[in-house]
Design goal:
The protein is an alpha/beta fold and 428 residues long. It contains 13 helices and 21 strands. The strands form 6 sheets. It has a 6-stranded parallel β-sheet with strand order 2-1-3-4-5-6, sandwiched between helices. A 4-stranded mixed β-sheet has the order 7-8-11-14, with helices on both faces. The chain has a 4-stranded antiparallel β-sheet with strand order 20-19-18-21, with no helix packed on it.
């Protein structure tokens, strides 16, 4: 592979994957590879996969086929969650040369050097229980908002989810390294950092000994955000997604009084029915969720709240769905990310009956997406006339530029070069 000079990346899934793809890109660029756009012809293509839903698996296979049509002689690497869960399935896709599981993802340079296009497909994977190292990652030069990974893996084992099998046990970066990365990003002109992880609120770095006192110092997500607040040069932080049972009152109160942490929470709900929440093995009930939303809105009436919800989970009846719909309708939330339940291999949800027909799942998805649209319209109307701070992004489309207010309202404006990566006061 010594002649290979160009590499292109494609990322599927979550903000965490974007952060890791950016880090993989820097590793290869450091080795002399030139980064190309994914639609350009490249010597190496790297696909960082997701496997939350069946559609993510299908999309990966479609992308490989597209590469085969456009650049049949290129070297194709597949990594990410799908690669860890089903490496043999991926290796069987014509055109795939290298499959890297969770433990080998960041050894990509070593593996690419050892192979050529004509070799048999190589699988580099391991038992997920052996994955116990944290690899620091952040996106840079990809977009105005930089994704900084501070936690990986999950110990929760929700009945529908394959992430623990794909990512391994919960593990975290050290606070010192997170601060070091944030400081470096600030030095490079980054204005906003989005903190990311698989289960971000479970952030728990290795216990350290307090210098001079010899006592153990236990750190958590709350202590981390207090330290990040002190980093000079970073103007805005966002918390990407946090479980309701881990979103403590002290975190909410801290954000309400912070100059840097934005009034924007994304809090997974998954169902507004307590029976379904129990079957999902979620660690809270709807009453706790409502309490979190009420406290946020009491302290920050202007705060944007996003919600993840799954429709069509096994045994979800008409009455169960109506309870979820009515619960979401009653909450002062801003938007929904709606997922149609997808059967995943080796999950305990497969044993729950009866199965909800796919057409009904899609109907319920549409109903909640319509509710989400109405919620966002109402939330935006509430902000009319207010002056809010917008961070504008660098790219222009049709001579227009876009950015987000502190409370996550998308703003479009005529392109002005002097506004790129700048925080601008904007009347909604």
């Amino acid at each position: 592979m010594s002649e290979t000079k160009t590499v292109a990346f494609h990322t599927l899934g979550c903000k965490l994957n974007f952060a890791e793809t950016s880090s993989l890109s820097r590793l290869l660029e450091h080795e002399g590879f030139q980064k190309k756009e994914f639609d350009d012809k490249a010597d190496v293509y790297v696909i960082n996969t997701c496997s939350v839903t069946d559609s993510a698996d299908k999309e990966c296979r479609q992308i490989v086929r597209r590469i085969q049509r456009n650049a049949p002689g290129s070297f194709v690497v597949v990594t990410g969650c799908y690669a860890q869960l089903k490496p043999k399935e991926i290796a069987a896709i014509p055109g795939v040369d290298l499959v890297l599981g969770a433990a080998e993802k960041f050894n990509i340079v070593h593996h690419i050097r050892e192979l050529s296009k004509n070799d048999a497909t190589k699988i580099c994977s391991c038992d997920i229980d052996d994955v116990n190292i944290f690899h620091s990652s952040y996106s840079f030069h990809d977009r105005t908002r930089t994704f900084l990974k501070v936690q990986d893996g999950c110990d929760y084992n929700c009945s529908y989810c394959t992430i623990p099998m794909a990512r391994g046990k919960s593990r975290s970066d050290t606070t010192e390294n997170v601060i070091r990365n944030a400081t470096q990003l600030a030095a490079n002109g980054v204005k906003e950092i989005v903190l990311t992880g698989v289960n971000l609120g479970d952030y728990s770095p290795p216990t350290t000994t307090e210098e001079n006192f010899g006592i153990l110092k236990k750190e958590n997500f709350f202590s981390l955000i207090k330290e990040l607040e002190k980093v000079e040069g970073i103007e805005r932080y966002r918390i990407s997604s946090i479980e309701p049972n881990l979103l403590t009152n002290e975190i909410i109160e801290f954000v309400a009084n912070s100059d840097k942490f934005m009034p924007h929470f994304h809090i997974p709900l998954q169902s507004g029915n307590n029976r379904i929440l129990g079957l999902m093995r979620r660690r809270y009930k709807r009453e706790l969720y409502a309490d979190r939303v009420h406290l946020i809105k009491e302290l920050m009436p202007h705060c944007c709240i996003g919600v993840d919800v799954i429709v069509g989970f096994p045994s979800e009846s008409v009455a169960d769905f109506k309870e979820t719909f009515d619960f979401l309708h009653s909450l002062d939330i801003s938007y929904l990310h709606v997922f149609t339940y997808s059967e995943r291999d080796n999950t305990t949800a497969l044993d729950i009956q009866p199965v909800v027909p796919m057409n009904i799942r899609h109907e319920r998805n549409k109903a909640l997406r319509n509710l989400s649209y109405m919620k966002m319209q109402y939330f935006t109307m509430q902000q009319e006339g207010q002056i809010r701070k917008v961070l504008f992004e660098g790219h222009a489309k049709n001579n227009m530029m876009e950015g987000y207010t502190d409370n996550y309202i998308k703003i479009s404006a005529p392109y002005k070069a002097e506004w790129v990566n700048e925080v601008v006061n904007w009347k909604i």
